[in-house]
Amino acid sequence: MAINVTYVEFLHEQLSGLEGVIFKKMFGGVGFFKEGLMFAMVSSENQFYLKVDELNKPDFEDAGMSAFDHPKRGKGMPYWTVPAEVIDDKELLKKWASKSFEAALRSKKK
Questions:
Q1: Pairwise CA distance, residues 26 & 92, whole Å
Q2: Which of 108, 1, 97 minimizes the C-alpha distance to 50?
Q3: What is the pTM of this model?
C-alpha cells in the first residue's frame, strides 16, 4: 500500500506544537524525528505509531492500543498505535508525542 501523503502532512501539522519535528520516508513508511531521534512513524499500511518504553506504555495499554508487529521480523517493535481522539486533539497529541520523544531519548542512553 502506498503512503498517504495527505495523512502524513496532517500528522506533521498535528505535531507542530512539538518544536523541530521533521519526517522522512524510510523502509516503506515514514519516520517522525526530533533532534535526530525517531519517536513516531507511519507504517506502509498508513497506521500511526508512537515510541513506547516502560514509562509511557501504560498510557497505550489503558487506551487499548497495540504494538507494531513487523511482518517480516515476526516480533513487535517499541511503537504502539495511537488512539484517534489523541491524534485529533493537537494538545493531547503533543503530550503523548513528548512522552514518546522522552522514550527515544532514554533508549539512546542505554
A1: 26
A2: 97
A3: 0.90
Please, what sign has the CA dihedral across residues 67, 69, 75, 77? Answer: negative
Name every residue whose Cβ is closer than 8 Å to that of residue 47 and which is 6 or more positions away in sequence.
68, 81
CATH number at residue 48: 3.30.1460.30
The answer to whether 12 and 32 have CB atoms below 8 angstroms apart is yes
Q: Which domain holds residue 71?
A: 5-109
The amino acid that residue 87 corresponds to is: I
Q: Which three cell numbers stand for residue 92?
A: 493531547
- Taking only the tens place, the pLDDT of each residue in 67-92 is 887 656 555 689 999 999 999 999 99
Supply the DSSP string of 27-81, one letter for each residue.
Answer: TTEEEEEETTEEEEEE-TT--EEEE--TTTHHHHHHTT--EEEETTTTEEEEEEE
The total of structural domains in the chain comes to 1
